[in-house]
Design brief:
0% helix; five-stranded antiparallel beta sheet; OB fold (Dihydrolipoamide Acetyltransferase, E2P); SH3 type barrels; mainly beta
Protein backbone atom coordinates (compact mmCIF):
# COMPACT_ATOMS: atom_id res chain seq x y z
CA UNK A 1 0.00 0.00 0.00
CA UNK A 2 1.08 3.53 -0.73
CA UNK A 3 -0.38 6.99 -0.31
CA UNK A 4 -0.67 9.90 -2.70
CA UNK A 5 2.57 11.26 -1.19
CA UNK A 6 4.40 8.29 -2.76
CA UNK A 7 3.26 9.12 -6.31
CA UNK A 8 5.96 9.39 -8.95
CA UNK A 9 6.02 8.97 -12.71
CA UNK A 10 6.14 5.30 -13.66
CA UNK A 11 4.59 4.03 -10.40
CA UNK A 12 2.24 1.13 -11.17
CA UNK A 13 -1.02 1.07 -9.26
CA UNK A 14 -4.28 -0.87 -9.20
CA UNK A 15 -7.03 1.56 -10.25
CA UNK A 16 -10.58 0.13 -10.31
CA UNK A 17 -9.15 -3.37 -10.71
CA UNK A 18 -7.00 -2.42 -13.71
CA UNK A 19 -3.18 -2.15 -13.79
CA UNK A 20 -2.18 1.47 -14.50
CA UNK A 21 1.07 3.41 -14.65
CA UNK A 22 1.25 7.05 -13.54
CA UNK A 23 2.23 9.32 -16.43
CA UNK A 24 1.74 12.73 -14.78
CA UNK A 25 0.63 13.99 -11.36
CA UNK A 26 0.27 17.32 -9.56
CA UNK A 27 -0.29 18.04 -5.85
CA UNK A 28 -2.78 20.89 -5.42
CA UNK A 29 -3.37 22.83 -2.18
CA UNK A 30 -6.20 25.27 -2.77
CA UNK A 31 -6.69 28.25 -0.46
CA UNK A 32 -9.98 26.79 0.69
CA UNK A 33 -10.65 23.09 1.28
CA UNK A 34 -8.43 20.02 1.46
CA UNK A 35 -5.42 19.20 -0.69
CA UNK A 36 -5.77 16.80 -3.61
CA UNK A 37 -3.68 15.17 -6.31
CA UNK A 38 -4.54 15.29 -10.03
CA UNK A 39 -3.26 12.21 -11.88
CA UNK A 40 -2.99 11.00 -15.48
CA UNK A 41 -2.53 7.23 -15.76
CA UNK A 42 -2.00 4.84 -18.65
CA UNK A 43 -4.03 1.63 -18.52
CA UNK A 44 -1.39 -1.06 -19.08
CA UNK A 45 -3.85 -3.46 -20.70
CA UNK A 46 -5.17 -1.25 -23.49
CA UNK A 47 -2.95 1.87 -23.45
CA UNK A 48 -5.76 4.37 -22.75
CA UNK A 49 -5.01 7.49 -20.72
CA UNK A 50 -7.21 7.94 -17.66
CA UNK A 51 -7.54 11.03 -15.46
CA UNK A 52 -8.52 11.02 -11.80
CA UNK A 53 -8.33 13.19 -8.70
CA UNK A 54 -7.30 11.63 -5.39
CA UNK A 55 -7.65 13.31 -1.99
CA UNK A 56 -4.28 13.95 -0.34
CA UNK A 57 -3.18 11.04 1.86
CA UNK A 58 -5.53 8.50 0.22
CA UNK A 59 -4.28 4.90 0.31
CA UNK A 60 -3.53 3.38 -3.10
CA UNK A 61 -2.77 -0.26 -3.94
CA UNK A 62 0.56 -0.60 -5.79
CA UNK A 63 1.29 -3.50 -8.12
CA UNK A 64 4.52 -5.13 -9.18
CA UNK A 65 5.38 -5.33 -12.87
CA UNK A 66 8.46 -6.89 -14.48
CA UNK A 67 10.08 -6.30 -17.85
CA UNK A 68 11.53 -9.40 -19.48
CA UNK A 69 13.44 -9.92 -22.75
CA UNK A 70 11.93 -12.30 -25.30
CA UNK A 71 12.78 -13.33 -28.85
CA UNK A 72 10.16 -13.68 -31.60
CA UNK A 73 10.25 -17.21 -33.03
CA UNK A 74 7.36 -17.60 -35.49
CA UNK A 75 3.70 -16.87 -36.18
CA UNK A 76 1.09 -19.61 -36.47
CA UNK A 77 -2.70 -19.91 -36.26
CA UNK A 78 -2.52 -19.58 -32.43
CA UNK A 79 -0.72 -16.21 -32.62
CA UNK A 80 2.85 -15.03 -32.13
CA UNK A 81 5.31 -17.34 -30.38
CA UNK A 82 8.15 -15.98 -28.25
CA UNK A 83 11.01 -17.49 -26.23
CA UNK A 84 12.53 -16.07 -23.03
CA UNK A 85 16.24 -15.37 -23.63
CA UNK A 86 17.50 -16.89 -20.37
CA UNK A 87 15.02 -19.62 -19.34
CA UNK A 88 14.06 -20.70 -22.91
CA UNK A 89 10.40 -20.75 -21.81
CA UNK A 90 8.04 -20.28 -24.76
CA UNK A 91 4.76 -18.34 -24.73
CA UNK A 92 2.17 -17.49 -27.36
CA UNK A 93 0.37 -14.13 -27.66
CA UNK A 94 -2.72 -13.11 -29.63
CA UNK A 95 -2.00 -10.70 -32.53
CA UNK A 96 -3.74 -7.74 -30.81
CA UNK A 97 -1.27 -7.95 -27.87
CA UNK A 98 1.71 -7.09 -30.12
CA UNK A 99 2.02 -3.48 -31.30
CA UNK A 100 3.28 -3.01 -34.87
CA UNK A 101 3.56 -6.77 -35.35
CA UNK A 102 4.03 -6.32 -39.11
CA UNK A 103 7.45 -4.71 -38.40
CA UNK A 104 8.64 -7.81 -36.54
CA UNK A 105 10.70 -10.53 -38.22
CA UNK A 106 11.84 -13.92 -36.92
CA UNK A 107 14.68 -13.60 -34.41
CA UNK A 108 13.61 -10.06 -33.40
CA UNK A 109 14.09 -9.20 -29.72
CA UNK A 110 11.16 -7.64 -27.84
CA UNK A 111 10.47 -6.59 -24.26
CA UNK A 112 7.36 -7.83 -22.46
CA UNK A 113 5.83 -6.34 -19.36
CA UNK A 114 4.34 -8.87 -16.92
CA UNK A 115 2.02 -8.41 -13.96
CA UNK A 116 4.38 -10.19 -11.54
CA UNK A 117 1.94 -11.78 -9.09
CA UNK A 118 -0.33 -13.20 -11.83
CA UNK A 119 2.37 -13.94 -14.47
CA UNK A 120 0.14 -12.22 -17.04
CA UNK A 121 1.51 -10.39 -20.10
CA UNK A 122 0.45 -6.73 -20.21
CA UNK A 123 2.42 -5.40 -23.19
CA UNK A 124 4.84 -6.56 -25.86
CA UNK A 125 7.06 -3.77 -27.21
CA UNK A 126 9.49 -3.77 -30.11
CA UNK A 127 12.76 -1.83 -29.75
CA UNK A 128 12.49 1.84 -30.82
CA UNK A 129 14.23 1.13 -34.16
CA UNK A 130 14.42 -2.02 -36.32
CA UNK A 131 16.53 -2.66 -39.42
CA UNK A 132 14.58 -4.01 -42.39
CA UNK A 133 15.23 -4.52 -46.09
CA UNK A 134 13.06 -2.92 -48.77
CA UNK A 135 11.65 -5.62 -51.03
CA UNK A 136 9.71 -3.31 -53.37
CA UNK A 137 9.51 0.38 -54.12
CA UNK A 138 8.97 2.38 -57.31
CA UNK A 139 12.14 3.89 -58.75
CA UNK A 140 12.43 7.65 -58.39
CA UNK A 141 12.58 9.85 -61.47
CA UNK A 142 14.89 12.85 -61.41
CA UNK A 143 12.91 16.08 -61.29
CA UNK A 144 9.85 14.16 -60.11
CA UNK A 145 8.87 16.79 -57.56
CA UNK A 146 9.56 20.35 -56.55
CA UNK A 147 9.38 19.49 -52.85
CA UNK A 148 12.57 18.56 -50.98
CA UNK A 149 10.89 16.10 -48.61
CA UNK A 150 8.80 14.04 -51.04
CA UNK A 151 7.97 10.49 -49.99
CA UNK A 152 6.97 7.27 -51.75
CA UNK A 153 5.53 3.95 -50.59
CA UNK A 154 7.86 1.03 -49.89
CA UNK A 155 7.19 -2.60 -48.96
CA UNK A 156 9.51 -4.11 -46.33
CA UNK A 157 10.72 -7.70 -45.96
CA UNK A 158 8.04 -8.32 -43.31
CA UNK A 159 5.24 -7.20 -45.66
CA UNK A 160 4.67 -3.86 -43.90
CA UNK A 161 4.30 -0.71 -45.98
CA UNK A 162 5.80 2.61 -44.93
CA UNK A 163 6.66 5.91 -46.60
CA UNK A 164 10.34 6.53 -47.48
CA UNK A 165 12.21 9.39 -49.21
CA UNK A 166 12.54 9.28 -53.01
CA UNK A 167 16.27 8.45 -52.96
CA UNK A 168 15.71 5.06 -51.24
CA UNK A 169 15.85 2.09 -53.65
CA UNK A 170 14.77 -1.54 -53.64
CA UNK A 171 17.21 -3.86 -51.82
CA UNK A 172 18.48 -1.22 -49.38
CA UNK A 173 18.36 -1.70 -45.61
CA UNK A 174 16.76 1.07 -43.56
CA UNK A 175 15.99 1.82 -39.92
CA UNK A 176 12.28 2.11 -39.13
CA UNK A 177 10.95 3.88 -36.04
CA UNK A 178 8.50 1.37 -34.50
CA UNK A 179 6.72 4.01 -32.41
CA UNK A 180 5.30 5.94 -35.38
CA UNK A 181 6.22 3.63 -38.30
CA UNK A 182 8.38 6.28 -39.95
CA UNK A 183 11.63 6.12 -41.94
CA UNK A 184 14.72 6.67 -39.75
CA UNK A 185 17.86 6.37 -41.90
CA UNK A 186 19.79 4.14 -44.27
CA UNK A 187 21.84 1.32 -42.76
CA UNK A 188 25.43 0.76 -43.81
Amino acid sequence: MATTADFKNGLCIDYNGKPCSIVWFQHVKPGKGGAFVKVKMRNLENGRILENTFTAGEKIETISVERRPYQFLYKDDMGYNFMHNETFEQISLEPEMVDNSDLMKEGQYVEMMFLADQERVLTCELPPFVELEITYTEPAVKGDTASTNAMKAATLETGAEIMVPLFINQGERIKVDTRDRSYGERCK
